[in-house]
Automatic annotation (TrEMBL), chain A:
Residues 151-258 form the Ciliary BBSome complex subunit 2 middle region domain. It is found in: Cell projection, Cilium; Cytoplasm, Cytoskeleton. Keywords: Cell projection, Cilium, Cytoplasm, Cytoskeleton. Residues 20-112 form the Ciliary BBSome complex subunit 2 N-terminal domain. The keyword Cytoplasm applies. One of its GO terms (cellular component) is cytoskeleton. This is Bardet-Biedl syndrome 2 protein homolog. Pfam families: BBS2_GAE, BBS2_hp, BBS2_Mid, BBS2_N, BBS2_pf. InterPro entries: Bardet-Biedl_syndrome_2_prot (IPR016616), BBS2_GAE_dom (IPR029333), BBS2_hp_dom (IPR055380), BBS2_Mid (IPR029429), BBS2_N (IPR029430), BBS2_pf_dom (IPR055379), WD40/YVTN_repeat-like_dom_sf (IPR015943), WD40_repeat_dom_sf (IPR036322). Residues 368-452 form the BBS2 GAE domain.
UniProtKB/TrEMBL annotation, chain B:
PROSITE patterns: TPR. TPR repeats lie at residues 379-412. Keywords: TPR repeat. This is Tetratricopeptide repeat protein 8. SMART domains: TPR. The lineage of its organism: Eukaryota, Metazoa, Ecdysozoa, Arthropoda, Hexapoda. SUPFAM superfamilies: TPR-like. CDD domains: TTC8_N. InterPro entries: BBS8, TPR-like_helical_dom_sf, TPR_rpt. Residues 77-101 are annotated as: Disordered.
Amino acid sequence: MAVPLYTLQLNQTFIPGLVTIGKYDGSHSCITAATNGDKVLVHTPHIRDKELSVLNVNQPVTAICAGRLRPDDNRDVLLIGTQTTLLAYDVENNTDLFYKEVPDGVNAIVVGRLGQWECPLAVVGGNCSLQGFDWRGDDPFWTVTGDRVRSLALLDIDHDGENELIVGSDDFELRIFKGDALIYEITETEAVTSLSVLESSKFSYSLTNGTVGVYDKQTRLWRVKSKNAAVCLWTYDIDGDGSAELITGWSNGKVDARNHRTGEVVFRDVLGHGVSGIVVGDYAMTGKPQLIVCSIRGEVRGYDSSCVTKDHVQRQGDTVRDLFSKKQMLLTELKNYTADPTGSGIPANTRLLTEINVKADHQVTFGGHVEVALSTNNSTVVRVATVFAEGIFEGETFVVHPQPQHVTNHLTIPLVPPNDTPLDIHIRAFVGPNAFKTEYHVFEVTRQLPRFSMYALASPITKTIPDSYATFQLSFLCNQLEAWQMQNFLAAVGSSNEERGGEGPSGADWSASLTCLRDGSPLHIRFRGTTITVATPHISLAADIVQSLAVYLNLDRVESVAEFPALFTEVEENLNRLEELKSNATRMAAAVADTANLIRSLIVRAEDARLLGHMKDLRECYVQLQQVNGDLVRGHSVRVANHRELLATLHSLNAVIQHSSKLRSE
Amino acid sequence: MDQFYLAMNMFRRRKFDKCADICTQLLEKNPYDQAVWTLKMRSLTAQVMVDDIEADEDGIADEFLDTEMIAQAARPGTSLRTAAPTAAPGLRPRANTGRAVSGMVRPRTQTGCGAGSLEAALRTPRSALSARPITSFTARSVRLGTASMITQPDGPFIQVSRLNLAKYAAIPGVAKPLFQYIFYHENDVRNALDLAVEATKASQYKDWWWKVAIGKCYSMLGINRDAEQQLRSALKHAPNIETYLRLSALYSKLDQPLNSLEICTSALQVFPNEVTLLTEIARVFEALNNIPASVKYYRDILQEEATNVEAIACIAVNYFYSDQPEVALRFYRRLLQMGLYNAELFNNIALCCYYAQHYDMIVTCFERALSLAMGETVADVWFNIAHVAIGVGDLKMATQCLRLSLAADPNHGAAYNNLAVLVHRKGEVQQALSYFQTAQAVSSYLFEPFYNYALVSKKVGDLQSSYSAVQKSLKVYPNHVQSQELLSSLRKYFENI
């Protein structure tokens, strides 16, 4: 436990994750947090008697951030994001810089320099979209990304003097953009809730399942998992050793600081309530910034490096306790070995064989699945297998545990990867002489699932070539393509040339017909001369194949021609519907405003009647008010439905843009 | 002569009734003549259309039920609600809205920051002159929307609800007059908005006029943020004074006066020395209680337009309250020369004469003022006569004048206060106290009744009510030295107990 430098009780509710700090007058830090009732609190400790001021937002706040948006002014601008708007507000002067409608919503905001743009930008992440606004309210930066953006960070990851944008989103991906081009894509196991920049090219991330970790460029240095969710991450040098620590605030009120290289905890404290936000700023006016932790009930604690040294004794105790528990564990393990030296023995030459195949089997799963077959090379049995892989199952492990009477030396595990991504699967098989033992040997194997594992060869009867395709020019040899297919598809492994439907690997003509096991849709890849054609009804699949080919063959530039008639009509329909929905929305907004005017005047009239003691009028006013209110509530549900449809349409449009942009590669 | 030509001619000569009549006859012959139809719309609109840029007024409901303002308690000097009182209330009286008296009564000077709650606002006495509308929407339809009430002999000219708005929106020549007709004549903002939305779509979002029109409708409906977007986008197409003024008014509504000033200043770059923009700036400064800056802009206006009544009146008021009645008198005489002839002007001239010691002129001016005064102005004139009477020492006459003033306007708080002081001089303490209480009830924006009440009740020995009254006085005027002294002496006394 550390002793904080100071503790303030603001007695206000702070919404988790919506806390920031800004110097709105250029010199004094002010904690700013979203609170109940769609309001934002600004805590100004330097103003006597009026420490808390309240800003009305009138819509639920979804993101908040303060930063120097104006290039020639050292005062911070407060950015408040809601589900449909972004407000840039000058707190000191009570003026808007701009107020923008952002139909994609604002889930995360980060302020800073991005790429080669001269002005600082406020980058806003919404539903599949990223927008960068400058201080005038223009948006010079715009791009799309997959799924809902949850977190953003700016970091110069490749040391070229220009910041890159790191985006964490709901589809478990960490994407790194350089300008509007995607340079890295890292898959995580859950939605990425927050990101924080560490020094040089390191950054930390946290997931909804309570994982916190650190990446250096694309490589993960370490990660830890907790049963609580990390609310926020920040970077601060708490032990004063010159290198910054990763500070994590947890939903149960714990705060800890970890060394960013090893993940070792160097500092921890517990607040009375869940952490709502962590910021760094000079609140004690000591000239040096402190680490400030806010709880959801408005408790504010400040720490700096002087807080850490005090709990040395504590840490000694911790270490002793750790060592004791380790000793205990080792002792139990030893007991296992000594208790029954012969019982669990299995032949020394026992080996575990694994085989991965595509099964178009309709009984176990819909459509088909990837089958991992485990077997031993002798009479020993495979009792249980646990599969550890990211993003395939709910949670992260999958256990196959047959009834004792069905246990053989064979075990099959059906897997259905939902996305076309290469996967590492770690399998632990419990192997023993028979099924009724309590102790087993554990075999660990790691296998890789190729990227397009969910595609089986199409049977000649159902072979169809879809009418939508992407085609591009390539000059390379067939066997390269062959090798690519070997690496990326399960289906081709072990299948002969005839089955693949081609005229042989040596010819200039090569084709493959496959079926997707997820929905039975056909995929047809054809290479003739220098033209390769990927025919599939799904543009996302075509995009993935193009990207995969481009990476495999080290191509700098691929330009493709795409023909997706069904998708095209869908996009056209969506655009039309968007237009319609938007005009509906304006009409309904006008109607609501009209009704609101009526309500206002009724309320004032009712109040007037009450003051005059004219109860008959009062009653009449309230009866009318009730009717109008009922209308308004009904109208609201229509509006909500309209808005939801609008969001869905935008989502699908953004997805199409993203996939189409992936059809080429630069 | 061709009838249509005649109608056009009538329209140009602003004989709108006749123009509409001729159009009606022509339409009977050929109901599908769009030119005639449009001309009739325009002539009907022109009969009722007024310049509505300044006609906007915040109603009671808008002030208390809306929380469009972002900051609830912004830094003083950045908000219209927490405007810093640069001029002490003792030196420059406040209007019944609690804001320093301006030289001119305009729609938006009525909006005050005095009352703290809906109930207080409703309890504030309202009369025909100081009444505030319930909402800004009703304000407008009461003031301007009389046209649609006139029943036309054979049904309304256009059944707006039956129009195919999308069809007419696509015809540029018809769409704009139709919009103005629906907006000004029919006062049907929602349909006007529908038409404007269709029309801006038809013009591929390139016509600034339609964007301003949509902005107008939105701000009328109270959707201020959308209105802002439309007006800003209109400005990108074509800078226009009207757009700037509407945007500035919008920011005043959102309680962001500094943004209003910025908009107007940037507009002045495009339209240098434009009087309407300068007036807007001067008004915002006045609302912020930054009187010197306001006067500076009013002076700039006079450089451009020497006959601007508002500028002259505001400068004159400022001179009067900064102890230069002679200079103020010159400005008021200028107004008189320009042909202004009303009770307020003569009343002000009389006061200037009194302070400038032109005693011979006072009585004649007040007589003129009384003969011209109507309604509540009579009360103000009598109040001022009482003031002069106190000055010359005729307390009996002063009392009579104050009673006359109260007869004309029973809610004249200042008159009650002065009457109470006179009564107290006569030694009738209880009556004085009750007059003070009345003054407090009808005009809580004045600090004098509170302070006087505290003083008198302290003398009587009622320290408790004195204490509570002096606190109220300090709430209205925090820097009032005498109140502070009284409070500290009362504190000392209570601490001794």
